[in-house]
Design goal:
alpha/beta, GMP Synthetase, Chain A, domain 3, Rossmann fold, Helicase, Ruva Protein, domain 3, 4 domains, five-stranded parallel β-sheet, 51% helix, binds adenosine-5'-diphosphate, binds magnesium ion
Length: 478
């Protein structure tokens, strides 16, 4: 029985992996070893005290939800620190409160309790009709993404100032909608969150809601299934400051979702409610969205985020050190800032990997260690593979039109192409099963899981099929 902890942890890892990008997963979760399971308390051994602190401050929610999902709502978690000289045998216990509705990680967006009625008592409904007093909306804002720790630089001065103006006077500046655009990892999500938090600070009475485009789309689909589309619309129409992240996600998909959003947009805008949108493209390049929606987005003033210059990159690293309470020599900071010039996410990734490595191997952070790590980091962080790209490669390989993956057909070759797309999306991207399904013809996460199994099984038993899989896989590393 006691050996069950390995199995339990393996199951947890499968979920965690599905919710995290690979580099972070490898850095923070692979070094963990399960060492016991006693009366519903899972004991994890972590390499150092730093790991423990980092997990507690950055991944505790993910760990809690995962362990609860596997072990049930009563589950508890404790840590043992491998190299803790003070008292190695004494585990540190983290309380996982046994209240809550046993949130499932797989379907996180769908089950997010948006609205709590009557101050949290009574049933938690995802949507609510307007006009009911004392509605509390969970803003879904991340507390750590504040405006104070969003470092200012030439690259973001305008966007930051626009954000501040919006937070001071939501709905009544020229920035309505406020469209924040910029490449991956340049701070769109952080800044959008920060504006939301600032708005709440200045206007505690206003209802602020952050939602990703993907989540919005899933909720809309779900509402359709449950005949509650009207509730869905009404819910969004009572928001004062609506933040929708990564709107490019709707490109070439979700025509109905876009229509629903179009109506919500008009409703809010007419009433001087604030709308904040982020996108990885400028409004004029947002092809694939409904033209009338694009025209709405152009109503406000757009603000772009650029790649930070090296001074700003250094300032961002200093801010990270301050926030995490970590010291690093100046020459190392400069080396990282000069070497990683792609975006802030990668900059942070390099910084964190360096800390993890030094902690894991008990080595001081020196220029030498940093150089070695950066070499690896720059090599490994090759371009991100997207699901769209995988669809294209798979369809090209079988000479199928790219949109056939989205079609409802059950033709064998198309079903197979769709399954292969799902399989590679699972293997090569950070997307969740639900997101993969959504992008491959609106399937659910169970279908994706099934597809992955089917492909693995076929590859084992059928030589030709295995050849296809290997041949396609090569295309992704070219
Ligand atoms: P995007 O949404 O544009 O892909 P994010 O907002 O997720 O990018 O930013 C990636 C990471 O970089 C986040 O951890 C964020 O906190 C950090 N970051 C980005 N810009 C800044 C900045 N100006 N100051 C501090 N941290 C930043
Ligand atoms: Mg983002």
């Amino acid at each position: 029985m006691e050996k069950d902890y390995q199995k339990v942890w393996d199951k947890c890892l499968a979920i965690i992996k599905d919710n995290l990008n690979e580099a972070l997963y490898k850095t923070w979760f692979l070094p963990i070893e399960p060492v016991g399971l006693v009366n519903g308390e899972l004991i994890l051994q972590v390499p150092t005290g730093f790991y423990y602190e980092y997990l507690e401050s950055h991944y505790i929610d993910l760990l809690k939800r995962t362990i609860r999902e596997i072990l049930g709502p009563q589950a508890r978690l404790s840590y043992r620190i491998l190299n803790d000289t003070s008292d190695p045998q004494k585990p540190i216990t983290t309380q996982i409160p046994s209240t809550g509705s046993g949130t499932s990680i797989h379907n996180k967006p769908r089950e997010m309790p948006f609205v709590k009625q009557n101050e949290g008592r009574g049933p938690i409904n995802p949507f609510i009709l307007p006009g009911i007093k004392k509605v509390v909306v969970n803003s879904q804002l991340r507390e750590s993404y504040t405006l104070e720790n969003f470092v200012e630089g030439e690259c973001n001065r305008l966007a930051r100032a626009a954000g501040l103006a919006v937070a001071e006077h939501p709905g009544t500046t020229a920035y309505n909608p406020l469209l924040l655009y910029g490449g991956v990892g340049l701070g769109k999500t952080h800044l959008a969150n920060a504006i939301g938090l600032k708005t709440k600070e200045y206007h505690p009475d206003k209802t602020v809601l952050y939602v990703s485009s993907e989540q919005f789309m899933q909720q809309y689909a779900e509402a359709g299934k449950n005949n509650s589309t009207n509730d869905f619309l009404h819910f969004y129409e009572m928001i004062d400051v609506l933040i929708v992240d990564d709107i490019q996600f709707w490109s070439n998909r979700g025509a109905k979702t876009q229509e629903a959003f179009f109506h919500i947009f008009n409703h809010l805008h007419q009433r001087n409610k604030q709308i904040i949108i982020t996108s990885d493209k400028a409004p004029s390049e947002l092809n694939g969205l409904e033209p009338r929606l694009i025209s709405r987005l152009k109503w406000g003033l757009p603000a772009d985020l650029q790649v930070p210059d090296v001074e700003t990159r250094i300032a961002i690293l200093h801010e990270k050190m301050r926030k995490d309470g970590i010291e690093m020599p100046d020459d190392v900071i400069e080396l990282i800032a000069y070497s990683i010039n792609t975006n802030v996410r990668e900059l942070e990734g390099a910084f964190i990997s360096l800390i993890a490595q030094s902690s894991l191997n008990h080595k001081q952070i020196t220029l030498d260690l940093a150089k070695k790590m950066i070499e690896k980091f720059v090599k490994n962080s090759s371009r991100d593979i997207t699901i769209d790209y995988i669809q294209k490669v798979v369809c090209d390989y079988f000479n199928l039109p790219v949109d056939s993956i989205q079609s409802r057909t059950r033709k064998r070759e198309i079903v197979q192409a769709r399954q292969l797309t799902m399989y590679f999306a699972k293997k090569l991207t950070k997307s969740s099963l639900a997101a993969i399904g959504m992008q491959c013809g609106n399937k659910d996460h169970a279908t994706v899981l099934h597809a992955c199994k089917t492909v693995s099984n076929l590859a084992e038993t059928d030589k030709t099929f295995r050849y296809y899989v290997e041949d396609i896989e090569k295309k992704f590393s070219e």
